[in-house]
Amino acid sequence: MTNTTTELSAARDMQFPLGAHIVTPRRWYTHHGIYVGAGQVVHYQGLSSSLRRGPVARVSLAEFSHGQPVHLHSEADVAYSGIEVAARACSRLGEDAYDVLRNNCEHFCSWCLSGTARSPQVESLLLRSRVVALATQVLVGFFNGWRTC
User: Fold this and answer.
1) In 3D, which of 93, 62, 70 has the Cα closest to residue 16?
2) Can you tell me the distance from the alpha carbon of 68 to that of 114, in angstroms, rounded to the nearest whole number?
């Protein structure tokens, strides 16, 4: 049995609580989904399987994991019970309005759990880009001022 087969079997057999926010690593980001029972996950496919955006879909845990480990994501501000979270996730099945900065898989899970769509991954990225932009402005100002002396 190969490692990939073992990982897929482990992902298929793993049990999470109904409405659990689960995550799995991808090359450049962490992918998020909501466990809805019976080995099924509802997630925003987005760019998770190709360069074409995909809708909110229900898939097997093994398909969601892409052969990677799946972990429970701890949440501080959950406003709904597990069954309500799962129902909220299922209510958006087929939605096809993916936007990497404003409506991605993490925004989707946050909305399912708390009613507010947030993506700390995007917030962190945008904060870092603002810091880089500010540092660039300071350096340009410094070098422009230094050149005129």
Assistant:
1) 70
2) 27
Contact yes or no for 64/41 (Cβ under 8 A): yes
- Does the model's pTM come out above 0.85? no
CA distance 130 to 149: 29
Of 44, 42, 56, 119, which is closest to residue 87 (Cα–Cα)?
A: 42
Per the CB < 8 A criterion, the answer to whether 81 and 61 are in contact is no
pLDDT per residue over 77-115, tens digit each? 899 999 999 999 999 999 999 998 889 999 999 999 999
C-alpha 73/C-alpha 80 separation (Å) is 15
CA–CA gap between residue 108 and residue 115 (Å, rounded): 9
